[in-house]
Specification:
By secondary structure, this protein is mainly alpha-helical. The chain has helices at residues 2-18, 21-28, 33-71, 76-85, 89-117. The radius of gyration is 21 Å and the shape is elongated.
Length: 128
């Protein structure tokens, strides 16, 4: 399911970029289709793709609870389920804090990575 979401976002952003004016201009200059796709289309499509991949990776942290419960694997998800069943709220809070921090780290890394990949994205916060 997760690869489906990423592939749909990739396809949609690539289709949008293929219809852009700068791609038509590159074609009129006679550039090879491979160069057009790699230099112009894919470079402008990285933003939404990287964002979606990061959200998928971050959601995998929350999915560990279900996967470990279904397949009987002992890990953080199983620890959370056992703590909930035993009413051990300090362990529940600790595991949820771990998952939230992991989610925040992944999304923060993407926020720092996107301006490096696409210079059109302004990394400064506006003061207005």
């Amino acid at each position: 399911m997760f690869s489906l979401v990423v592939s749909r976002v990739t396809r949609q952003t690539m289709v949008e970029q293929l219809d852009a004016d700068h791609v038509s201009a590159a074609r009129s200059f006679g550039l090879a289709e491979r160069k057009i796709v790699t230099r112009h289309v894919l470079r402008n499509s990285w933003g939404p793709i990287i964002t979606m991949v990061a959200l998928v990776v971050a959601s995998l942290l929350a999915g560990t609870v279900v996967i470990e419960s279904v397949f009987g694997i002992s890990g953080v998800g199983a620890l959370l389920v056992d703590a909930i069943n035993a009413h051990d709220f300090t362990v529940v809070q600790a595991v949820l804090l771990y998952m939230v921090i992991g989610y925040m780290i992944v999304t923060t890394l993407v926020d720092f990575l996107l301006p490096l990949l696409d210079p059109r994205i302004n990394s400064k916060v506006s003061s207005s």
